[in-house]
Amino acid sequence: MLRTHTCGELRLKNEGEKVTLCGWVHRRRDHGGLIFIDLRDRYGITQIVTGPEDKDAFAMMEKTRPEWVLCVTGTVGKRKEGAARKDNPTGDIEILVSAVTPLNEAKTPPFEIDLEGEINEELRLQYRYLDMRRIKLKDNLVLRHKLLQAVRRFFYDRDFIEVETPILIKGTPEGAREYVVPSRVYHGLFYVLPQSPQQLKQLSMVGGLDRYMQIARCFRDEDLRGDRQPEFTQMDLEMSFVTAEDVMGINEEALISITKEVRPDVKIRSVPFPRMSWEEAMGTYGSDKPDLRFGLEFTDVTDLSKGSGFGIFAKTAEGGGVVKALRVPEGAALSRKDIDELTETAKVYGAKGLAWIKSAKRGYEGVPVDKLGADLTKKMAEKAGMKDGDILFFTADTFEVACLSLGAVRSDIAKRKKLADPNVFAFAWITDFPMFEIEKETGELQAMHHPFTRPKDADLPLLEKEPLKVKAEAYDIVLNGYEIGGGSVRIHERALQKQIFDILKVSDEDAERRFGHMLKAFEYGAPPHGGIAWGLDRMAMLYAGEPNIREVIAFPKDQKGKDLLLGAPSVIPEKQLKELGVKIMKA
Questions:
Q1: Of 95, 131, 321, 337, whose CB neighbour count within 10 A is largest?
Q2: Fold (CATH) for 137-274+428-574
Q3: Beta strand pairing call for 231-240 and 529-535
Q4: 3-state secondary structure at position 20
């Protein structure tokens, strides 16, 4: 090794030792008679110092500039009284330099690496190797490593085996658009990159592996946002001879253990994790991934709205919709501008508007008050627990639109009032999802999760005539307003799987073409099984306290799916396209 120690290793106990360090020039300070350099590597920062009495070392340190790579030899010394840095683990010592060897010079970086302020993200992604030198990103990547290490260790210790599944697989469309890879050997045929190892981990159960886990790379060609990337990492898990309770139980144990190891400073809000049905989560918080670090629960005032003088409320309640109210303590202080902005937030999710009532000692005020009348307004206010200085927001629409739009308002208010404690982790299980939902564009039934999810046994008689009433043996784990994992008990019988395909209008021919391998496997003694997948990028984002997953991925794509560092996607030479049997057509 060129070095005897790292830049984060030395302490007062090493005083008097001769050492050699290697690293980058983080900062350089010339104090006339003395030159100080903060030398940085992955492990930390150590101050080195020399004076003019050592001519060669002094001359070399005079020449150095930020991000030069140095090899430094010297003696560990105690810093002078008052010069120690308590915010740095090596802050009690410095290296009295006897020799400096430049290993590489550096151009002036396009941004200052020693500053942790805001830097243009495009520039950071273009020079990601420089961005990695910054302490914040480096710490995020180390945290991600610890997270993955803790995940593997927990499940390895409980007899799970890691099985690597292939990246090039057969296309079996299950929802998101797939990335397609042309075959060079078989012109006109294609592989796809897996959206998840879902079918392969189920086949591992048919193979008798019993307990499987994998840190898996997955790919989805879909519109991006802060918590999505075209390629992402999952922890996939599958177990044989289990119920939903078994899967949730070991996952809850894992998340508690991993959180204590990776983020021992945070408080887990509730153990055991609270559970609520999908309908309860939507109806109470307006989200199937509610942030439970704060309250702001909804009150249902649908019954009170029937026959009321406020036409929008009455028509919605009598037509099978819902009227939901959200009480915001001390929300009467919100300005008209605030209310208008919150109304626009609700409209994004389909609401036609946002009604409101303010409470004060002089009475109630707001658009619906006159039409609802004093008595009905008071009843609604009392049902919602309204106090002086509060405001009630209302949405009236279908269950989904009313809940989602008011849920968006809830989240917006929480951000404005800073209600979510960043040092609290509020896990929760969401259960009893609908088995099917209506696809908005086609009006056809589709599986809410995926077509291999098992219906609840009690609802099997409803499959043929009332499929929208069927609940699934599915469960999501949520954390602080994000879904971090989702799973289910699977179908393991060919007959039941065919019945689900029939309901989804997947023909026998299409089912055989897309899922024949699964159907065939179910004929050879498939055991009951269930599992889950965690979104590890999203978890790392939350554990690191970052606003998007690009901050915890070493080489992410930008918001448009471009790799600014390598320049992908890029043009493929005509010769290579010809080998693949691919021709580019003009759009």
A1: 95
A2: BirA Bifunctional Protein; domain 2 (3.30.930)
A3: antiparallel
A4: strand
Structure tokens at 318: 């009598």
CA atoms in the 13 A half-sphere facing the CB of 516? 8
- Phi first, then psi: what are they for 557, rounded to 5°? -85, 160
- What per-residue confidence (pLDDT) applies to 363? 87
**For 18, what's the count of Cα atoms within 13 Å in the CB-facing half-sphere?**
3
8 A C-beta contact, residue 506 and residue 447: no
The per-residue b/e assignment along 129-163, b for 16 or more CB within 10 angstroms, e otherwise, is: ebbbbbeebbebbebbebbbebbbebbeeeebeeb
Taking only the tens place, the pLDDT of each residue in 477-494 is: 999 999 999 999 999 999
Question: What's the pLDDT score for residue 175?
Answer: 65
Q: What's the CA gap between 175 and 404, in Å, rounded?
A: 22
> pTM of the entire structure?
0.93
Number of H helices and E strands in the chain, helices first, is 17, 24
Residues in the chain where the model's pLDDT stays below 70: 173-175
| Calpha distance 264→291 (Å, rounded) | 21
Please name the residue ranges forming H helices in 48-194. Answer: 55-63, 121-126, 128-131, 135-156
Name the CATH code of domain 294-419 (choices 3.30.1360.30, 3.40.50.620, 3.30.390.10, 3.40.50.1110): 3.30.1360.30
CATH of 12-104, one of 2.40.50.140, 1.10.274.10, 2.30.30.110, 2.130.10.10: 2.40.50.140
